[in-house]
């Protein structure tokens, strides 16, 4: 009995994401976009870099933006700093004075009230004729000189409201579109984007149509995943929020405190999906399905794993041979990296939900 229940939970835990992946792959991954993408579209773009104690990275980040091949008169940078104590604003100011051909505005908040708060402050300093706002974290880099151009090209289509990037798998050299199809995670982002929208955006590059940001009232300040949540609110308005296969970004993974960092990220994501579930909308049905499955995968499915393990362990303690075999198999599979990655991600998500009960950060 116990082993049957444990095996059933495990089958659901692995079966639902696998079925979703296979469905997306078959039905959407290779479909054409059906969008009017225009590489010649060059609206006025403001790149917003929020900083809190980023003195080690801010110059490198500005250099990276500076390398973008986008008409200079159409590009502007806003660095919004929240009372950094390591000299970040001074470094940004010095960099700006050395690069007079790129317009850089430094906005300083007198106190730190979180990234989303800083982003909303930045919005107030954006010129009225700017059409696109691109958020990018200080610890991220754009591997292509035409990253901005590529992202903006999709916004030429009025049905698209927001564009983010796919994460370049670490250690991969420059490659073409095919890279998008290499990682499972990227395949899911891409296929969801083609179906309608993906509910997961990346802080390395998140481009929004400014008018839509105003329509949804700016960035949500009560939860961590402001990039994903903002994109989803835009999708819920019927505009698409997509991560195309030709827009890439790179993130520096912190060397210290990796586990803490992963749990914090997972906390932000689970907060995002919990809030989406509580918001009721008239949603396009394709989007509704994506949100329902992703909310399930982030909020409920992770718990089936420890539940299954507990039931099987109990059965094994009662000398059930099938439970012992299943547990041994599950343990042996840990040698296989994609499986290990999946398992640790599930554990981060459950840890995050527990941690969310007492702290949001
Ligand atoms: P993570 O990538 O989600 O772990 O978050 P990071 O710590 O890398 O922060 C993302 C970006 O937001 C970085 O550029 C930070 O400097 C910036 N940031 C974080 N907190 C604040 C804040 O309170 N104010 C401002 N202005 N920026 C912040
Ligand atoms: Mn980061």
């Amino acid at each position: 009995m116990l082993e049957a229940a444990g095996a059933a939970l495990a089958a659901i835990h692995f079966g639902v994401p696998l079925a979703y992946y296979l469905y997306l792959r078959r039905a959407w991954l290779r479909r054409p976009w059906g969008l009017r993408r225009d590489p010649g579209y060059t609206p006025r773009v403001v790149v917003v870099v929020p900083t809190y104690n980023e003195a080690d990275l801010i110059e490198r980040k500005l250099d990276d933006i500076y390398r973008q091949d986008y008409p200079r008169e159409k590009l502007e940078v806003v660095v919004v700093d929240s009372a950094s104590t390591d000299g970040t604003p001074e470094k940004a100011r010095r960099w700006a004075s050395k690069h007079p051909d790129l317009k850089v505005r430094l906005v300083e908040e007198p106190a730190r009230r979180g990234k989303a708060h800083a982003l909303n402050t930045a919005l107030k300093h954006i010129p009225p004729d700017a059409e696109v706002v691109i958020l990018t974290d200080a610890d991220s880099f754009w591997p292509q000189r035409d990253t901005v151009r590529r992202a903006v090209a999709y916004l030429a289509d009025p049905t698209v409201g927001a564009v983010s990037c796919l994460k370049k798998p670490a250690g991969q050299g420059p490659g073409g579109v095919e890279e998008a199809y290499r990682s499972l995670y990227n395949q899911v982002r891409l296929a969801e984007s083609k179906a309608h929208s993906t509910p997961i955006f990346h802080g390395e590059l998140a481009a929004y149509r400014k008018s839509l940001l105003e329509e949804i009232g700016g960035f949500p300040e009560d939860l961590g995943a402001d990039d994903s949540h903002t994109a989803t609110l835009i999708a819920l308005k019927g505009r698409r929020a997509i991560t195309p296969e030709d827009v890439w970004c790179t993130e520096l993974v912190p060397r210290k405190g990796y586990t803490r960092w992963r749990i914090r990220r997972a906390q932000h994501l689970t907060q995002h999906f919990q809030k989406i579930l509580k918001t009721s909308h008239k949603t396009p049905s394709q989007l509704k399905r994506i949100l329902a499955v992703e909310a399930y995968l982030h909020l409920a499915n992770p718990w089936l794993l420890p539940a299954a393990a507990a039931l099987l362990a109990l059965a094994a303690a009662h000398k059930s041979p099938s439970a012992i075999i299943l547990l041994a198999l599950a343990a042996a599979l840990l040698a296989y990296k994609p499986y290990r990655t999946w398992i640790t991600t599930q554990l981060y998500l459950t840890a995050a939900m527990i941690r969310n009960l007492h702290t949001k950060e």
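The longest helix spans residues 2-29. The pocket of guanosine-5'-diphosphate (ligand 1) is lined by residues 50-52, 54, 80-82, 112, 114-115, 118, 137-139, 203, 261, 265 (CB under 6 Å).
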